[in-house]
Amino acid sequence: MLPTRRKKLGRLLVLTALAISLASCSIIGIPDSPLNSLDPQGPFAERIDNLFWPVFWVATVVFVLVEGAMVVSLFLFRDRPGRKEPRQIHGNNKLEIMWTIIPAVILASIAIPTVRGITDLTECGADAYPIQVIGHQWWFEYRYPQEEVVTGTELVMPAGREVCATMTSEDVLHNFWIPALNGKRYLVPGQETQLRLEAFEPGTFIGQCAEFCGLSHSLMRARAVALTEDEFASWVSSQQEPAAQPAEGSEAAAGLEVFLNRCTQCHTVDPFNVVALDEFSGPDLTHFMSRDTIAGGALEYSRENLTRWLANPPEVKPGSYMPDLGLTQEEIDSLIAFLETLE
Ligand code: HEC
Ligand SMILES: [Cu+2]
Predict the structure, then answer these.
(1) Do residues 184 and 176 make contact, with C-beta atoms less than 8 angstroms apart?
(2) pLDDT tens, position by position, 37-56
(3) Is the shortest distance between the CB of 221 and ligand 1 below 6 Å?
(4) Residue 219 has pLDDT above 80, yes or no
(5) Fewer Cβ atoms within 10 Å of its own Cβ: the N or the C terminal residue of the chain?
(6) pLDDT at residue 199, rounded to an integer
(7) Is the CB of 294 within 6 Å of ligand 1?
(8) Paired residues of 142 in beta bridges
(9) CATH class of 251-339
(10) Which numbered ligand comes closest to the C-alpha of 269?
(11) CB of 328 closer than 6 A to ligand 1?
């Protein structure tokens, strides 16, 4: 190779390495990694893992054998001056039957558990706890039909128990993916799909919408919070409570006033207003403070981030369906005082 070409190649390699390491960084500084499918934290993800590793090792052996045979043939049977043609095996029945049967057996032994796995991972058990998952550009909404609870962004679930996620989308295709709990599954407008979720232990498991769904697709995070049976029961009963009336004359009361004037077209805060579930709507804010992340998981909750969000949502999430409402700093401050009462 010419020295300049070698230099160029070196530069290209460095740039590629840099691009790969930058691509794995989070742009807005919220932990979105590791999105690791090799670290199962529940029975369904484990089922995938138990299939993945044997297939991986079989594939590795096949790769080494096939590539090895090729490299050996390249050197052993190379054309050299005066060399005779090597013995030809074309038309050797025994060999051809053997190398047809062996791959067929390997493929069948992979295909059978794979097809069984696909149905097992998506057909819920009879006792599974039902949760509806609704995809919106760009956040996930969760409804608990048995408990009449509606929340968003964080899927709170009991640990050690199967959850049956029945999923659909309000707008475009989305894809629900929490790698520690199960594989990916589509959310399809006008159609329902199911996904089984279960965590062995309490914990927080992060995920991501895995289907390109528009401008802020990368900021459509998923997050499951698994709680012990008791914690889950008390979470449910606190979610069923309506919001408290802010004290008269307080800053929160002023914030409620702004909310009623500017926000009720899209947001519910029970008991002050209710936007019908089938209307176009943003996240239900009745228990806004019970979530650690806001705006589809794009921002960690903090006053500073909430100010940023209220001041100009599309600046945080390009294309956001919550518009820049031109709020004054005073309005933002009182809204935050109000929102912080929504535990
Ligand atoms: C035109 C509809 C619309 C209006 C009006 C609107 N919002 Fe939103 N809001 C949304 C949508 C949609 C989202 C979700 C955006 C996303 O995550 O991409 C959202 C998200 C939010 C969130 C984050 C919620 C969460 O749980 O992550 C807050 C807080 C919020 N809005 C507050 C307000 C306040 C306060 C007002 C009134 C000043 C308001 N919104 C007006 C549509 C609206
Ligand atoms: Cu999406």
Answers:
(1) yes
(2) 899 999 999 999 999 999 99
(3) no
(4) yes
(5) N
(6) 97
(7) yes
(8) 133, 151
(9) mainly beta
(10) 1
(11) no
Strand pairing report for 163-169 and 139-144:
unpaired
283 Cα–ligand 1 center, Å: 7
Residues of the chain with CATH 2.60.40.420: 28-77+91-239, 251-339
Q: Do residues 96 and 131 make contact, with C-beta atoms less than 8 angstroms apart?
A: no
Does ligand 1 have an atom closer than 6 angstroms to the CB of 266?
A: yes
Query: CA angle, corner 136, sides to 130 and 140, nearest 5?
Result: 45
Give the ligand at the shortest distance from the Cα of 294: 1
pTM here?
A: 0.86
Q: Classify 98 as helix, strand or coil.
A: helix
Ligand 1 pocket: which of 141, 267, 308, 316 to mutate (most atoms within 8 A of CB):
267
Q: Which ligand is nearest to the CA of 220?
A: 2
**E strand residue ranges, 116-268:** 129-136, 139-144, 149-152, 155-158, 163-169, 174-176, 185-187, 193-197, 203-208, 221-227
| pLDDT of 27 | 44
Contact yes or no for 150/185 (Cβ under 8 A): no
Mutate-to-test residue for ligand 1 from 263, 307, 328, highest number of ligand atoms within 8 A of CB: 263
Taking Cα atoms as reference points, which of 221, 272, 267 lies closest to residue 245?
A: 272
Are 215 and 209 a contacting pair, CB within 8 Å?
no
pLDDT > 90 fraction of the chain, expressed in percent and rounded: 78
In this prediction, residue 35 has a pLDDT band, given cuts at 50, 70 and 90, of: confident
Please give the mean pLDDT across all residues of the chain.
Answer: 91
Q: Which atom from ligand 1 is nearest to the alpha carbon of 313?
A: 15
In degrees and rounded to multiples of 5, residue 224 shows phi and psi of: -110, 135
Please choose, from the candidates 136, 190, 185, 189, the residue with its C-alpha nearest in 3D space to the C-alpha of residue 165: 185
For the chain, give the number of residues.
343
Residue pair 332/339 in contact by the 8 Å Cβ criterion: no
Model confidence at 2, pLDDT cuts 50, 70, 90, reads low
